[in-house]
Design brief:
By secondary structure, the chain is of the alpha/beta class. The protein has two domains: 183 residues, 3-Layer(aba) Sandwich (Rossmann fold); 176 residues, Rossmann fold. The chain is 30% helix and 15% strand. Strands 2-1-3-4-5-12-13 form a seven-stranded mixed sheet, sandwiched between helices. The protein has a six-stranded parallel sheet with strand order 8-7-6-9-10-11. Helix 5 crosses helix 8. The protein is globular and about 65 Å long. The chain starts with a strand and ends with a helix. 46% of the residues are buried. The protein binds NADPH dihydro-nicotinamide-adenine-dinucleotide phosphate.
């Protein structure tokens, strides 16, 4: 029987919800590329309820315990005295969410001889040292597509929020004010702007599709080119690299995984080639941008705004400069953890666990590392050092 160690974010400060703002979730049959939604044999939760926090337990307890397994759920994940580090020593399976990542470093992997499966309840397994997982024979799987559209919606919201100066304008209202000039002195229309994405995978392409009706000029760069029909339909301009693309853009959105090719990509050098007053939206991973270079670019006016929901480390310390830099629209890491997304990634996690314990293959699209190498989606989208 296995021990499953699950790291989730804390419950709301005023307690686990007794009621919800809405009674149901829309039914979605398939993802835009035709991939089917998670299809476990059953679920023991109500879609639309809070599943990603400790009390929600991703709806897994009764299923796992009915199979004789042990489930340990904690939010205490950092430092040698954390519950995570203590419980890891004899865990067979670790489940973690990118929003509240349980960093699986080489040192931690070395302390976990039984660990054979690391599940990301979400997308983006960079909190797992993939090279160390490969060496230790650990399978890494994530719930591909579960929150790609959730993030794409957040990106569109943040682009509009920055360009139209929404957050300072909202603050004027909350503070009892009415100074229109203060609100509009940094407010523009998105219409006609040059907007581009670094990576046009599931999220990047969904962002492009959602922005097309705003009558903007769309650009992208990616390691693989999109089909010509898609480029034509959306009027996309392809660029061979981020370096080639960003000087042309008013708005840049980052939608690539964090791996050695993308870490630190948006540093002083690349930022200095952007148009003065460009906007940068990063909902991919905090480390793709250089923390202090972003602050400098906002302070100098090189960037007119920066928004996103990804930081390093997470949770971000109280003194993290992105909390107080000018013209930012940061949120905590929430874009992929809407209640809608939680229902999908909880079901996907259950599907992965069912496959694992039944000895049947995990869907190829969920695999990042398997059999001692990058596999499935991981072989396509990631690289190792
Ligand atoms: P996909 O795998 O569908 O897309 C990733 C794309 O990035 C692929 O098209 C890939 O190229 C491309 N890519 C990889 N490396 C580079 C590079 N060096 N330069 C340009 N393009 C590159 O993933 P998703 O779109 O679903 O997610 C993307 C990322 O977004 C995740 O890895 C994760 O880090 C982040 N994310 C954030 C969330 C949040 O809550 N904020 C939630 C979900 C994801 P190709 O495949 O063509 O080689």
């Amino acid at each position: 029987m296995a021990k499953i160690l699950c790291v989730l974010y804390d419950d709301p400060v005023d307690g686990y919800p007794a009621t919800y703002a809405r009674d149901d979730l829309p039914v979605i049959e398939r993802y835009p590329d035709g991939q089917t939604l998670p299809s476990p044999k059953g679920v023991d939760f109500t879609p639309g309820h809070l599943l990603g926090s400790v009390t929600g337990e991703l709806g897994l307890r009764s299923y796992l315990e009915s199979q004789g397994h042990t489930l340990v759920v904690t939010s205490d994940k950092d430092g040698p005295d954390s519950v995570f580090e203590r419980e890891l020593v004899d865990a067979d399976v670790v489940i973690s969410q990118p929003f509240w990542p349980a960093y699986l470093t080489p040192e931690r992997i070395a302390k976990a001889p039984n660990l054979k499966l690391a599940v990301t309840a979400g997308i983006g397994s960079d909190h797992v040292d993939l090279s160390a997982a490969i060496d230790a024979g650990i399978t890494v799987a994530e719930v591909t597509y579960c929150n790609s559209i959730s993030v794409a919606e957040h990106v569109v919201m943040m682009i509009l929020g920055l360009v139209r100066n929404y957050i300072p304008s909202y603050k004027i209202v909350v503070d009892g004010g009415w100074n229109i000039a203060d609100a509009v002195a940094r407010s523009y229309d998105l219409e006609g702007m040059q907007v581009g994405t670094v990576a046009a995978g599931r999220i990047g392409l969904a962002v492009l599709r959602r922005l097309a009706p705003f009558d903007v000029r769309l650009h992208y760069t990616d390691r693989h080119r999109l089909p010509a029909a898609v480029e034509e339909e959306l009027g996309l301009t392809f660029h061979a690299s981020a370096q080639e693309m960003v000087p042309h853009l008013d708005v840049v959105t980052i939608n690539a995984p964090l791996h050695p090719e993308t870490e630190g990509l948006f540093g002083d050098k690349l930022l200095s080639t952007m148009k003065r007053g460009a906007y940068l939206i990063n909902t991919a991973r905090g480390k793709i941008a250089d923390r202090d270079a972003i602050v400098r670019a906002l302070e100098s006016g090189q960037l007119a705004g920066y928004a996103g929901d990804v930081w390093y480390p997470q949770p971000a310390p109280a003194e993290h400069p992105w909390r107080s830099m000018p013209h930012h629209g940061m949120t905590p890491h929430i874009s992929g953890s809407s209640l809608s997304a939680q229902a999908r990634y909880a079901a996907g996690t259950r599907e992965i666990l069912e496959s694992w314990f039944d000895g049947t293959p995990i869907r190829d699209e969920y695999l990042i590392v398997d059999g001692g190498k990058l596999a499935g989606t991981g072989a396509h989208s990631y690289s190792t050092k």
